[in-house]
């Protein structure tokens, strides 16, 4: 990569920017859906008890909404380290409000060693409620993602479902 590149963020990249960027826009990718199916042994869990974070799953015709950041090529060194636990860079066409542009995104494939896949919603909630890692609690990840998507006027039913269940204590307080 030689010049500034559009990066599509759909998870923590939407709400935790520890990297410089030149521009940011609401964005979507087509043919993908966001799922809490990736294990986190570092940021939101530990090797013995991984948390759950989002990845993208191929889903014909569906759109995943997030945020695109225009970044300088040298920023990828930092991001490759941040997304090291199973994610790899994919080239992708991004939909921006007024344009379609080439870009990249980090996706954790179903065959990466940290991939967890689907689970009953109650099991996912219990795992997320329990787990924490170097970047903080797993609950924070879910609630911050839900908040950031709402701020973009997006509601993702999968994220909202988990956030609603996690936003209160098990006793309902
Ligand atoms: C992303 O946010 O685009 C990748 C997944 C994550 O870091 O949560």
Features:
alpha+beta, disordered C terminus, 173 residues, Hypothetical upf0131 protein ytfp, 5-stranded mixed sheet, binds succinic acid, two-stranded antiparallel sheet, 39% strand
Description:
The chain is of the alpha+beta class. The chain has one domain (5-172): Hypothetical upf0131 protein ytfp (Roll), CATH 3.10.490. Helix content is 27%, strand content 39%. It is built from five helices and seven strands. A five-stranded mixed sheet has the order 2-3-1-5-4. It has a two-stranded antiparallel ribbon with strand order 6-7. α4 crosses α5 (157-166). The radius of gyration is 16 Å and the shape is globular. It starts with a strand and ends in a 7-residue tail after the last helix. The structure holds succinic acid. Residues 9-13, 53-54, 83, 106 line the site of succinic acid (SIN).
Q: Brief description of this entry?
A:
With about 170 residues, the protein is of the alpha+beta class.
**Which residues sit in consecutive blocks of at least 5 with pLDDT less than 50?**
169-173
CATH architecture: Roll
In percent terms, what proportion of residues is strand?
Answer: 35-45%
Bound molecules: succinic acid
Q: What is CATH's topology name? A: Hypothetical upf0131 protein ytfp
Rg from Cα: 16 Å
- Give the oligomeric state of the chains in this entry, treating copies of one chain as homo and distinct chains as hetero: single chain
> Which whole number gives the mean pLDDT?
94
User: How many structural domains can be distinguished in the coordinates?
Assistant: 1
Instruction: Give me the strand/helix succession.
Output: EHEEHEEHEEHH
Main sheet: strands, sense, barrel: 5 strands, mixed
CATH superfamily: Gamma-glutamyl cyclotransferase-like
Ends distance: 50 Å
């Amino acid at each position: 990569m030689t010049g500034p590149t559009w990066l599509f963020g759909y998870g923590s990249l939407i709400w935790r920017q520890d990297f410089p960027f030149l521009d940011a826009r609401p964005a979507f990718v087509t043919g993908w859906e966001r799922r809490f199916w990736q294990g986190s042994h570092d940021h939101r869990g530990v090797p013995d008890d991984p948390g759950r974070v989002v990845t993208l799953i191929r889903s014909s015709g569906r759109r995943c909404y997030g945020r695109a950041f225009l970044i300088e090529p040298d920023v990828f060194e930092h991001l490759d380290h941040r997304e090291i636990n199973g994610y790899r860079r994919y080239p992708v066409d991004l939909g921006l409000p007024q344009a379609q542009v080439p870009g990249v995104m980090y996706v954790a494939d179903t065959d990466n060693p940290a991939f967890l896949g689907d689970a009953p919603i109650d099991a996912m909630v219990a795992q997320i409620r329990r787990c924490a890692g170097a970047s903080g609690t797993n609950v924070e990840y879910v609630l911050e993602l839900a908040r950031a998507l709402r701020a973009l006027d997006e509601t993702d039913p999968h994220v909202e479902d988990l956030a609603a269940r996690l936003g209160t204590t098990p006793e309902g307080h």
